[in-house]
Amino acid sequence: MSAMNWEPELEELRKRQALTRQMGGAERVARQHKGGRLTVRERIERMLDAGSFHELGEISGKAKYDEDGRLTELVPANCVFGRGRVDGRNVVICGDDFTVRGASADSSIPHKFRMSEDMAAQFRMPIIRIIEGSGGGGSVKTIETTGRANLPGGVYSSSGADLTVENMSLVPVVGLGLGSVAGLGAARLVASHYSVMVKGISAVFVAGPPVVEQLGEPRTKQELGGWEIQVGCGAVDHAVDTEEEAFACARRFLSYLPSSVHELPPRGPARLDRDHREEKLISVIPRDKRRAYHTRRVVNMVVDNGSFFEMGEGFGKAIVTGFARLDGWPVALMAGNPLYGGGAWDTAACQKIIRFLDLAQTFHMPVVHMVDCPGFAVGLAAERTANIRWGMRALAAINQTTVPWCSIIMRNVFGVGGLAHQPVNRLTVRYAWPSAAWGSLPLEGGIEAAYKAEIEAAPDPEAHLAKIKKRLDDLRSPFRTAEAFWIEEIIDPRDTRRLLCDFAHLAAPLRTPGVTGFAVRP
Fold first, then answer.
1. Closest of 369, 302, 300 to residue 332, by C-alpha
2. Are residues 41 and 159 in the same domain?
3. Which of 35, 165, 236, 455 makes a 20 to 30 Å CA pair with 297?
4. Beta carbons within 10 angstroms of residue 96's beta carbon
5. pTM for this model (two decimals)
6. How many independent structural domains does the chain possess?
7. Which long-range contacts (CB under 8 A, 24 or more apart) does 49-54 make?
């Protein structure tokens, strides 16, 4: 019977599949679990819709045979990849198997990494990279195991490094750093639109503690590349407590985006009445301009219930960025944060804005800007970090967008930084609250200098200063600006949600699918 069919070969296939599913062996799997980490196959199972994973290259690896040509050993490649579904949508997923030689090049098949990136690009599917170790990168032992030194890059490189970056202009890319991530793995993690670490478990670095210690800087993994470091500097977008939370964040991030730039962001359910008026908005901005308020609370009052998905919370804190929905329509929202530096844009905030607007432009997402910016940050720290250069790059990013744009001026718009409240080269939608204030520079702190001689000559300098302040306050009223039609509309803050939902509906047919790519910055 066996001579009449291919059952012996299928039995051989099942044997090889069983060997590769053992990954690095029971001992290394147990070590992975003891360290509080799932295995790559467990991660893929939890990330994707149940039963949707279709693996490619499952039996690839390094094999040994006896004298008769029978298989005696099969060490699987430390890259597991294939296609599956997330909330019913097709995605590519590629995961490092740390149980096999720490996911280093010693046991990798680079073509698997490249094919995962190529599949995402060619079939227009989001890609999820689950990264631990060097992500297919090398180790010192690679020289000995291959018998030669690897020359990085070049036309014959099979690592897919070119596609790793190129895909950011084509499909949504998610990076999950779920352990120690170094070298090429770190590069693959941050070359994404959204990246996540696990607190206390993940660490990300160009080179790990052993290498750094040789340079005279002994550090633990967490000291060198723990989540506080990487989220705080903006290299990684978010950190969570568990791997399950990381998977949930990835699913939610993808829910706002199209599968590729050739599609449009999908409309979701509207979870709040379009005409809802939040009474608290009438008093949310303090009359005392020295007092701050909670921007995130304002955002959540005007977007669909529970729809605000913040990204980059730990970096560039003067600006809050994230996705939200307005009557179901997805938008890219950024809002000034007066709780940090008064909301002045420092270098980190400008870098965050550039990257965020690139994301919005790439995937055709309308932008909503809740404006409160007293200008660029000033002082020695700002000068040392080239804040004016990064500020101008942020202005360039704003003016280079072509997606629909709506600005809600809540409070401050001053100085060169004030130019950034909307693109200046095209028609956009703009509203101002009665609490709005604008000008070349804030009056506070400048009156005494500008009117110094007049104040000192007055019989009652304090009373004269108060008189000047009152006169200038009257002149800078937003109603004076509206008289000249320099601001199109002053609104009741409680009408903000209705007007933003109107904007989302107006913007929906203006979104145009197609390749835009990350814009080149000056």
1. 369
2. yes
3. 236
4. 30
5. 0.91
6. 3
7. 49/84, 49/85, 49/86, 49/87, 49/88, 52/84, 52/85, 53/82, 53/83, 53/84, 53/93, 54/82, 54/83, 54/84
Q: Is residue 518 part of a domain?
A: no
Beta bridge partners of 369: 334, 407
- Whether 382 is covered by a domain: the verdict is yes
Three-class SS state of 78: coil
Cβ atoms within 10 Å of 380's Cβ, excluding its own: 7
Helix (H) or strand (E) holding 384: helix 380-384
Is residue 264 in a domain?
A: no
> Would you give per-residue pLDDT tens digits along the chain (522 residues)?
456 899 999 999 999 999 999 998 999 999 999 999 999 999 999 999 999 999 999 999 899 999 988 998 888 999 999 999 999 999 999 999 999 987 676 667 888 889 999 999 999 999 999 999 875 555 566 666 666 666 666 544 556 778 888 999 999 999 999 999 998 899 999 999 999 999 999 999 998 999 999 999 999 999 999 999 999 999 999 999 999 999 999 999 999 999 999 999 999 999 999 999 999 999 999 999 889 999 999 999 999 999 999 999 999 999 999 999 999 999 999 999 999 999 999 999 999 999 999 999 999 999 999 999 999 999 999 999 999 999 999 999 999 999 999 999 999 999 888 889 999 989 999 999 999 999 876 656 567 777 788 888 889 888 888 888 787 777 778 899 999 898 999 999 999 999 999 999 999 999 999 988 554 333
